[in-house]
Amino acid sequence: xxxxxxxxxxxxxxxxxxxxxxxxxxxxxxxxxxxxxxxxxxxxxxxxxxxxxxxxxxxxxxxxxxxxxxxxxxxxxxxxxxxxxxxxxxxxxxxxxxxxxxxxxxxxxxxxxxxxxxxxxxxxxxxxxxxxxxxxxxxxxxxxxxxxxxxxxxxxxxxxxxxxxxxxxxxxxxxxxxxxxxxxxxxxxxxxxxxxxxxxxxxxxxxxxxxxxxxxxxxxxxxxxxxxxxxxxxxxxxxxxxxxxxxxxxxxxxxxxxxxxxxxxxxxxxxxxxxxxxxxxxxxxxxxxxxxxxxxxxxxxxxxxxxxxxxxxxxxxxxxxxxxxxxxxxxxxxxxxxxxxxxxxxxxxxxxxxxxxxxxxxxxx
Length: 365
Ligand SMILES: Cc1ncc(COP(=O)(O)O)c(C=O)c1O
Hints:
The structure is a single chain. This protein is an alpha/beta fold and 365 residues long. The protein contains 13 helices and 13 strands. The protein has a 7-stranded mixed beta sheet with strand order 2-10-9-8-7-3-4, sandwiched between helices. The chain has a two-stranded parallel sheet with strand order 1-12. Helix 8 links the parallel strand 8 and strand 9 (220-225). The two termini are 42 Å apart. Pyridoxal-5'-phosphate (PLP) binds next to helix 5.
């Protein structure tokens, strides 16, 4: 990294960066190109609830003039009522990414270990690097169309074990009783289960969440987001669930006003419209079924999906397919990393977007 704004005889502020920050590549978010059909970052396919839009329209100027409630009280109360926990067991974040940052900052000192099955959500690694912690990546065991937990996940003396369930980018699901076993076996670690996509598994009738077991595992932390099934990625809202003492400790780490007033109000409204939420999930699952049927007809394969996306095996042509689709206005996700470079991840979109994608894929295969 060089700084051409600084004369040759002067020191650049870049030289003062912490070496970890200077040398790290940084997290690469999915492309956000509004004029393309976006099937690359797993947002909800349908719009937010009409009740959320009404809450947005009702935001008064005082909500903007004043600081927001630092602890997101009304939102925590609404989330607690919705999910059957105490408000003291809930912490709200500026997206679940913020909840992840809070967890890493709270639990991991330099050199300490955080273990996760791999491949998974890339931010888990970026945050470890920033914290000077050591990420222990353990490959999922792929058995047919299933991804199973690495057998040594709890044996790495990691202070924190983190996993997404359903997992991103594979869309695969680990059964709840296996994750409860992880909590028991790793009694000296914090176990973070990131349930960003769990509503799609629950919507399919699978008992996929660890939230009902929160009180039975003091080392368990569960994360949820409003970016996917609630279609509020732009508002940035995530929830963290843990024991009350853990939440109290994490409150010390978060930014004072980490969730803005508008987002707090939208979150309450979103939680209040359960029927709309369930309908969006059901429509998404119907669309996923159509997409799977069409992709299957092309002879392509993908792991058993529990979320609103598919990780499709393409082979050596994956990058070319990703680029061709992009030229046609369809954005899917492709990674250069060796473990993912033969695959593309396709988010389930609106019916018309999925139809366009299927038509484009039919021309390519
Ligand atoms: C597994 C997982 N966790 C967390 C996030 C981040 O969600 P948020 O928008 O709430 O920060 C994502 C986003 O793609 C994700 O895939």
